[in-house]
Amino acid sequence: MWSGRSSFTSLVVGVFVVYVVHTCWVMYGIVYTRPCTGDANCIQPYLALRPKLQLSVYTTTRSSLGAENNVDLVLNVEDFDVESKFERTVNVSVPRKTRNNGTLYAYIFLHHTGMLPWHDGKQVHLVSPLTTYMIPKPEEINLLMGETAVQPQIEAEKKPSSALDEPVSHWRPRLTLNVMVDDFVFDGSSLPADVHRYMKMIQLGKTVHYLPILFIDQLSNRVKDLMVINRSTTELPLTVCYDKISLGRLRFWIHMQDAVYSLQQFGFSEKDADEVKGIFVDTNLYFLALTFFVAAFHLLFDFLAFKNDISFWKKKKSMIGMSTKAVLWRCFSTVVIFLFLLDEQTSLLVLVPAGVGAAIELWKVKKALKMTVAWQGLRPVLQFGTYSESERKTEEYDTQAMKYLSYLLYPLCVGGAVYSLLNIRYKSWYSWLINSFVNGVYAFGFLFMLPQLFVNYKMKSVAHLPWKAFTYKAFNTFIDDVFAFIITMPTSHRLACFRDDVVFLVYLYQRWHILPHCGSVSGGGHSTASSGCRPGPQGLCVLQALSCG
C-alpha cells in the first residue's frame, strides 16, 4: 500500500515537472521571435524610415468611427517621438449619454504630422472604452448612529435600494499607450499570430513595410482607480501615459491580456480579473517569473497537503492525543474566514481555496466527533460514537487547557467587537458580526492551537499528528508570505499568513524537544513501533522526527 501511495505521489510530481518545463518552453516561444534572414518575404519596419508622426486622442460615444463628426479632440502631440516617455493629464467632457449610464470611447490615432488622421492612408489607430460597468460598493454606516461617510454631492443623488445591485458606468482615469520601437524584420511566411492582428502592412516600391505597432495596455486599468460617473458630472480627468515597448514584452503583454479576457468569458468578474492584472502590472518581469514558479509550487504543495490530510483523517479511528476542541476551532475559524472573504468580495484566487479548506474542516469535525446520520423516516438524527478510556484522558487535558484559555480569549474578542461597533462603519449588522468573528480569529486564533500543544506536552508524544500534511502546509505557509504582498486581500488576512509561520515553528520545536514515543500511537489509534525513530535527548534530528509522521 505504501508503494502505491509513493507511486501516485511520484506521478503527481512528474506531471508537475513536465508542466513547468512545458510552460517555460511556451514562454520562451513568446518572448523570442525568429527574424527574417533572407530578402524574400521579409517585412521591414516603417519606423526605420524615421517618419514625422503625430499622436491624436479623440473621444466619442460611438463604437465605430466613420468620419470626423461627433468627436472631441482631447490630446494632440505634434512631433511625436516614439522613444520619449511622457504622461499628461487632460480634462474630458462627459456627454449626457455617458452620464445617463452610457459608454464613452477613446480613439487613438498615430498619423503623419500636419494631416488629419482620416485623411492619412498610413495612419494606425485603436479604440478603447473609457468606461466600464460595475455594481457600486455598498454604503458603510455607523450601525448605532446611522451616520454615513458619503460625500454630500453623492448624497444628493441617492438612488432607490432596488438600483443598488444594478451595474452603473464607471470612469477609467488612465489610458496607457505603447509603440513597439524595435527595428525588427519579420518573416512574412511565419508571422506570430499575436502580433499579426496589430500589424498594418503597406507596399513601398518592391518592399513591404509594417506601420508602427500601436498597443493599448488594458492591464494598467485597475478597479481601485475607477470613478463612479454621476449625472451631475460634466468633466473627468484622464491621464494619458506613453512608453515604448520591446517586441518580446509586447507579445507577452498581448498573451496576458488575452488570458484576462478569457477569465472574464469564463464568468470571472472584473474585480476577480483585476487581481490577476495586479500580479502582472505591479511587478517587473523577473519578479513575475519568480511568482509563476512560486505559484506552481504552491499548487503542488496544496494538492499534496490535501491528499495527505484527507488520507490521515480517512484512516483515523481514534482521537487519542488529538485535541477535539482544536479541530472544532479550526473548522469554525475556517468557515468564518470563508464567509468574511465572501462578504469582502475577495478575489476567487483566495476565495476558492478557502471554500475547499472549509469543506475539508467540516468533514474532519464529523470524523473527530464520530458523528453519523441516521434517518427516522424523513427526519435525520445525529448519532455520536463512544470514547475509549485513553480518548477520555485526552479530552480531559483538552478541557483543562480550554478552561484557562477562555479567561483570556473571550474578553478580548468581546472587547474588540464592541470597539469596532462604536468606531468603525459597516455595510450591515451581518457585516459587523462576520468582521468581529474574523478579527477574533485572525488576532487570537493562534491561541486555540494551545490546547493541542498542551495535549502533546501532557502525553509526551507528537506521533499522533499528521506530520506529512503539516510539512506540506508549512512550505505553503512560507509561500503564502510571498503571495501576501502580491495578491490583494484584507490586511487581517495578510497578517494571518505570518502568524501561521509562528504556529508551525512552535509545532516543529515541540517535535524536536519532546521525547517522541514513536511506538505510542499511530494515525489510526493503534500501537506501532518504528525502527527509524528512537528515544533520545532534545537534540533529536528534525528530519528523523518527520520520518515518524
Describe the structure.
With 549 residues, the chain is α+β, with helices and mostly antiparallel strands. Helices cover 46% and strands 17% of the residues. The protein has 15 helices and 17 strands. The chain has helices at residues 2-31, 96-99, 152-155, 193-196, 247-265, 270-281, 285-315, 324-343, 348-368, 389-423, 429-444, 450-459, 467-483, 491-513, 542-548, and strands at residues 42-45, 53-60, 72-80, 86-93, 105-112, 124-129, 131-134, 168-171, 174-180, 186-187, 201-204, 207-210, 214-216, 227-228, 235-245, 371-376, 379-384. The strands form 5 sheets. Strands 10-1-12-11 form a 4-stranded mixed beta sheet, with no helix packed on it. A hairpin with a 2-residue loop joins strand 16 and strand 17 (379-384). Helix 11 runs parallel beside helix 14. It starts with a helix and ends with a helix. The model is unreliable at 150-163 and 515-549 (pLDDT under 50).
Total strands: the figure is 17
Rg is 31 Å
Helix content: 40-55%
Number of DSSP helical runs: 15
Give the rounded overall mean pLDDT. 76
Biggest sheet statistics: 4 strands, mixed
The proportion of residues in beta strands is: 15-25%
Question: Stretches where pLDDT falls below 50 for ≥5 residues?
Answer: 150-163, 515-549
State the separation between the terminal residues, measured CA to CA: 16 Å
What spatial form do the alpha-carbon principal axes imply?
elongated
Physical arrangement of strands within the biggest beta sheet: 10-1-12-11
Structural class of the helix and strand makeup?
alpha+beta
Membrane topology: Multi-pass membrane protein
Pfam families: CLPTM1
Protein name: Lipid scramblase CLPTM1L
Family: Belongs to the CLPTM1 family.
